[in-house]
Specification:
This protein has 320 residues and is an alpha/beta fold. It folds into 2 domains: 190 residues, inorganic pyrophosphatase (n-terminal core) (Alpha-Beta Complex); 119 residues, Roll (Diaminopimelate Epimerase, Chain A, domain 1), CATH 3.10.310.30. The strands form 2 sheets. A 6-stranded mixed β-sheet has the order 6-7-8-9-11-10, sandwiched between helices. Helix 4 packs antiparallel against helix 5. The longest helix has 16 residues.
Length: 320
């Protein structure tokens, strides 16, 4: 049964009734999770609240996103009255923060993934929104302070999840929001460059190795690449430097589905999927307890990388 959203006004009222608020995004956080968390926390701090953000360590490309001073350790996060989960499709995506989420008195879930399980006491999920940052902007606009730092955070989240306004989730509302944020004199060119055009040498080497491993399957309808922990280490990098690979694979002409698999451990594999119109990769990810969007989704599979790939290809065979 589909669950109804709480209103953003009701959610804001519940947040502002608290003095100590904790926020967290999903494991292996991306530009939207980081931007949404640090923007909302910064605005709450400006309104006189104590706000802390729990995030796993993230890559250098996100270092331009302001308000890093609001990042806290799990030990510093104790005692919050409200916990806001941002950009998480379900509780498990909170990773190590899940336990704190469960024991915090008031739990709020704000997200834009269609597969969201409505796991909060209060929920606002808009699967048509371009990003969670877009929803946070709706929540804050005209009600709580949005300084230059928060505007930069929101812009980073917005452009990251729209691929620089290229994805079909980009709407007129998205562009109006971008214009509003740009008017606050944020370094929008620098943010774009850091997220899309800047990379470490190890990231370059990892990309090369993953692309070397790529293959076409199902008569060219599927492009798939893999990379192991050993290969990542041989490039001198880490699994924080893999973001760009799936979108590069997606650009291969005449393919319908792109898949990328990497080892988290020898028996745990992360899969990322992209699909063209008519190919629901969110449904594919949900077969493995993952989720996301119709055209962009992912999951974690407890199996060696070759087996994980085999399992996913068996499901893709049914889709095709």
């Amino acid at each position: 049964m589909t669950r109804a959203n709480d209103s953003l006004d009701a959610i804001l009222e519940a947040i502002l009734a608290a003095q100590h608020i904790l926020l967290a995004g999903h494991t292996n956080p991306d530009g939207d999770a980081i931007g949404a968390c640090l923007a909302l926390a910064g605005s709450l701090e400006k309104s006189g609240r104590t706000a802390g953000v729990l995030l796993e360590s993230y890559g250098e490309k996100y270092s331009l996103i302001p308000n890093r001073h609001l990042l806290v350790s799990p030990q510093e996060a104790e005692g919050a009255e409200v916990f806001i989960a941002l950009d998480c499709g379900d509780e498990k995506r909170l990773g190590a923060a899940e336990e704190l989420f469960r024991k915090t008195p008031r739990k709020i879930n704000i997200d834009h993934h269609k597969s969201n399980t409505f796991f909060g006491q209060m929920n606002y999920v808009d699967g048509d929104a371009s990003s969670t940052s877009e929803i946070v902007y709706r929540l804050l606009k005209g009600k709580l302070p949005i300084g230059r730092e928060e505007a930069a955070c929101l812009y980073a989240g917005l452009i990251y999840d729209t691929g620089g306004f290229r994805h079909s989730s980009t709407s007129p509302e998205t562009m109006r929001m971008a214009a509003d944020l740009m008017e606050m004199e944020i370094p929008f060119t620098d943010i774009y460059h850091s997220l899309f055009d800047s990379r470490s040498f190890s990231e370059l080497k990892i990309m090369g190795k993953a692309l070397e491993n790529a293959e076409l399957l199902f008569g060219g309808k599927v492009v798939c690449a893999t990379i192991t922990t050993a290969e990542i280490e041989a490039c001198g990098g880490s699994n924080k430097e893999l973001d760009a690979i799936i979108n590069y694979l997606k650009g291969v002409r005449n393919t319908e589905i792109a898949c990328f698999f990497y080892e988290k451990t020898e028996t745990e594999v992360k899969g990322s999927f992209r699909g063209n119109e008519g190919y629901d990769v969110c449904a594919l990810a949900q077969k493995f307890d993952g989720g996301g969007h119709v055209k962009a989704a992912g999951c974690t599979i407890s199996a060696p990388i070759a087996k994980a790939k085999e399992m996913v290809m068996a499901e893709i065979a049914k889709m095709l």
